[in-house]
Amino acid sequence: MKHSAYQYGFHDSVRPLYRVPHGLSEDTVREISAQKNESAWMRDTRLRGYALFRKKPIPTWGADLSHIDFDAISYYVRATDKPAHTWSEVPKKIKTTFERLGVPQNERKFFAGVGAQYDSEVVYHHIRKDLDKQGVIFTDTDTALKQYPELFKKYFGTVVPIGDNVFSALNTACWSGGSFIYVPKGVKVKLPLQAYFRINEKRAGQFERTLIIADEGSDVHYIEGCTAPTYSTDALHAAVVEVIAHKGAHVRYTTIQNWSSNVYNLVTKRARAEEGAFIEWVDGNLGSKITMKYPSVLLAGRGARADILSVALAGKKQHQDTGAKVIHMAPDTVSNILSKSVSFGGGRASYRGVAQVVKGAHRAKIKVRCDALLCDARSRSDTYPTIKVEEQDARIEHEATVSRISDKELFYLASRGFSETEAASLVVSGFFEPLAKTLPFDYAIELNRLIRMEMENTKQK
Predict the structure, then answer these.
(1) Which residue windows are transmembrane per the record (predicted)?
(2) Contact criterion met (CB below 8 Å) for 295 and 324
């Protein structure tokens, strides 16, 4: 059975209610803010972001971003008037899209709340009533700005400053949508919360802003997924994610991004962990033209911990430049980074990481492991680790391996009736087992199916 080149590459004939002209200017930023009926504070924040975006250089140290045409992109596309709270309220064509992606079905099976974003705006949002009664806030970020202005302003831009990098500045200028989560003290959200992000418009950008605040002793797991149609022109995804875990809180943030091959995926994701807090990033990257994404944790309180699992699958004409960053700022902090990448069909995967221990962070422990698997002689893997240590009693471990798919493994599987591509897909799925183990069962099955499809499609070409 042959599969299409990209399962989620279909395009919907949905006419947006409103879109700004292509290109970004100060007038465009003002127009986005006006369309959202925002306060002067947020409008001015956007304008500061725009000014910094114009001043900051495009990175040249990672993947090749020289072909991005910022003037060819529409920075705000609105498909609906406001978010719906039941699927029956979502416009029919948009609802059909999310049904094809399995979002409503997964909500019923796995999740305590779901948000769905279509282009620049969230079109659906829902949370279980029992969590609402416990004071859990799970809404889109635009709504949070209006309904919880003091909480929003207290944390917005505190982990990822406006001018952190050129793409965080761009996001600040034209952000729209995303998830806002607040979990009160001691509340444990037992089922995950999920958001799904879909780019539909041609030559469009998506710039969601996600802000998660876990108060003392709370616990939450957030899962996001992303797809887009396949076009001959490029699209841009430049999100910003900020996570704050207060004393003793636990946050797990899981991403499975499967963008089409025309998307530049340039994301800034960072968390701050206070005393005894625990942050987990689970970051799965499939698809896209270029991905540059390095989930980061600031270990700011004594005994804070961080686990980062970064997984990348780089196929034909793809560059996955991914990794992780940990900054140990307090004593007795612990971090573990596991990076796993697979390159096939001439694809390139790069691990780029920072492990830092600042003065005063006594007895910090860091373990970094990078495993790369090459499936053919045309593919490439690189590792760019940076380690900075300012305390003598820190313990740092770094291990890196690069290997090829074993001929013995392929021969064994072939002897059991598997084709060459099926055998290679099974080996890759086993290599990515640490990611699959963190997902709901049906999601793990879907991940393995996506891996198989990606490798089959490359083989067919």
Answers:
(1) none
(2) yes
Report residue 162 as tokens: 């406006």
Q: Report d(CA 172, CA 184) in Å as an integer.
A: 27
Q: Would you list the domain boundaries of the chain?
A: 18-293, 407-461
CA distance 311 to 429: 11
Q: Pairing mode, if any, of strands 263-273 and 235-237?
A: parallel
- Interatomic CA distance for residues 228 and 453, integer angstroms: 16
- Name, in order, each residue with C-beta under 8 angstroms of 295's C-beta and a sequence gap of 6 or more: 253, 269, 270, 271, 281, 283, 308, 310, 324, 325
pLDDT in tens, 26-83: 999 999 999 999 999 999 999 999 999 999 999 999 899 999 999 999 898 876 555 6
131-150 pLDDT, tens per residue?
A: 888 999 999 899 999 999 99
Token pair in block for residue 139? 């809404």
**Which are the contacts of 335, defined by CB distance < 8 A and separation ≥ 6?**
297, 299, 305, 306, 307, 308, 326, 328, 355, 365, 366, 367
Q: What angle separates helix 40-55 from helix 166-174, to the nearest 10 degrees?
A: 150
d(CA 39, CA 304): 36
Instruction: State how far the Cα of 185 lies from the Cα of 328, in Å rounded to an integer.
Output: 25
